[in-house]
Design brief:
It is built from one helix and 14 strands. It is mainly beta. The N terminus and C terminus are likely disordered.
Length: 155
């Protein structure tokens, strides 16, 4: 399949100035147009997706979804910035920024949410600053926990 996956320190041919980059301003990895990724993506720093990703994304860093990209995933991230399409549940510890012509179909849990005119959000939104960090950490920790059997008490 045609496309590019680039590592830290490399320049992408795609212009990253149309999406604000979180953290130190560097993109650590790039999934180019035409690339299809399936599975769990766990990383530190910032990644930009311009192709398609199906599965799960886990990071305390930033996920950038470029225009034309399609991400079908359960997302646990520090920051999510989207101009493409996300289908799935998003938990963002810091913020979610949906830019035009971005589309997000699913549930969003974050303390800060911004939508540009022309962006589309189809789903539910939960904004609870103190609970988001706890929920994010619980989800992040459960991903590595082994399943156990036995009765569970109701909350």
């Amino acid at each position: 399949m045609a496309g590019t996956v680039q590592q830290a320190g490399q320049k992408s041919s795609s212009d990253s100035s149309d999406l604000e980059v979180g953290g130190d301003g560097n993109i650590n990895a790039f999934v180019g147009k035409g690339v299809e990724f399936r599975g769990t993506l766990t990383y530190d720093g910032t990644i930009r997706i311009d192709g398609s990703l199906e599965g799960e994304v886990q990071t305390e860093g930033c996920l950038l979804v470029g225009q034309g990209a399609v991400v079908t995933a359960k997302i646990n991230a520090g920051i999510v910035i989207c101009k493409g399409t996300i289908i799935g549940d998003v938990i963002a510890k810091e913020k979610v920024h949906l830019r035009s012509p971005g589309v997000l179909k699913g549930s969003v849990t974050t303390p800060k949410l911004s939508l540009e005119e022309g962006a589309l959000l189809i789903g539910t939104v939960e904004m609870a600053p103190s609970d988001v960090s706890l929920l994010w950490e619980r989800q992040h920790n459960l991903a590595g926990a082994e399943p156990h059997s036995g009765a569970q008490s109701a909350a």
